[in-house]
Each structure stands twice: as structure tokens, then as C-alpha cells.
Amino acid sequence: MPRLMLTDEFWPKLEKILLQEAIYNKRNLRMTVEGVLYRMRVGCPWRDLPEVFGCWNSIYKRFNAWSSTNKWSRVFKALIIDPDWEWEFIDGSYVKAHQHSAGAAGKKPQAIGKSRAGNSTKIHLAVDGCGLPVEFEITGGDVNDCSVAPELIAK
Questions:
Q1: How far apart are CA 120 and CA 71, in angstroms?
Q2: The pTM is what?
Q3: Contact at 8 Å (CB) between 125 and 155?
Q4: Distance CA 28, CA 59 (A)
Q5: Is 152 helix (H, G, I), strand (E, B) or coil?
Q6: Which of 59, 61, 91, 120 is most buried by a 10 A CB count?
Q7: Helix and strand tally (H, E) in the chain?
Q8: pLDDT (tens digit, 0 to 9) for every residue of the chain, 155 residues total?
């Protein structure tokens, strides 16, 4: 069985937040969330999720549904409790996008930009004095940290 990320102490707190965001308490909710977290931590394809988490396609569909309705963002915001504002640190990380990632149909911006390495996305993250994330912004890979820093600090 893969190593789980959520402790028995933390799960009831997260479950309460998920239920407040209208994420229904289906019978495998914890394993679905564990599967999503495992996939994000390891970076494996959805199809390669260990079977202990359940059907990879169900987890993928729930992740997409929750993402498209901004439920993950609201859960993230709800988890930020009493940040330490004595210090605030900002950093960015590049994520290489697949060569066929740009150009999907739709009106939403895709946050994919051209850089030296090709198509890429950049995650700008602000953390508090304890190193816990408090805000993030996703932009194209061609956007530098200095142009996003004022927005992150203002948020």
C-alpha cells in the first residue's frame, strides 16, 4: 500500500472543509483525495495510480470536476489559518508543458507561455514566515517574478 499523506488527526478537519465546499461525502472520499494528493506528489499519469486508491478514471473525473468549479482553490484558501505575516517570501517554479498543450478550444486563458525551453507555465508562490503557502498565481512561463510580486503581496 502506498504511503498516505493525510493523518487520522488531520482528515476530519479536511473532511469538514470539503463538505462545506459541497464536495459530497461519497464512500471513498478519503481515498479519492489521497489518490489526487498521491498523483500530485509523484507526478505519475492518472492511469498509473495504485489500485488501492480506487478506479483511476473516477479519481480523475472528480479532480477535473472539482478543479473546473474552483473547489480546490476554495479548499486551499480555507486551509490558510492564521498565517505568520512577519515575513513573506515569494518564489517561482517553471513547469514544462507538453508540446501539444497549447491551443485547446475555449475562452479561458491557459497560462502557457513561450520561453527558452519551449512551452512552459510558471507557478508563483507566496509563503508566510513559517514557510506555509498563503497565495499563488499561475502564469505563462515567459512572465517574470517581479511582475507578479506586487499582486501576490497585495493578496
A1: 25
A2: 0.66
A3: no
A4: 10
A5: helix
A6: 59
A7: 5, 4
A8: 466 788 888 888 888 888 888 888 788 899 999 999 898 888 889 999 999 999 999 999 999 989 889 888 888 888 777 777 788 888 887 777 766 666 666 666 667 777 777 778 888 888 888 777 888 888 888 888 888 888 888 87
Q: Rounded distance, CA 34 to CA 100, Å? A: 29
Residue whose entry in the numeric block shows the C-alpha cell 489521497: 34
For 96, the enclosing helix (H) or strand (E) is: strand 89-96
Cβ atoms of 125 and 80 within 8 Å: the answer is: no
Residue 52 DSSP symbol: G
Q: Which residue bears the cell 486551499?
A: 76
Q: Please choose, from the candidates 150, 81, 151, 140, the residue with its C-alpha nearest in 3D space to the C-alpha of residue 112.
A: 140
Q: Which residue is associated with the grid cell 514557510?
A: 131
Q: Which amino acid is at 18?
A: L
47 exposure class (CB count in 10 Å sphere: 0-12, 13-18, 19+) = exposed
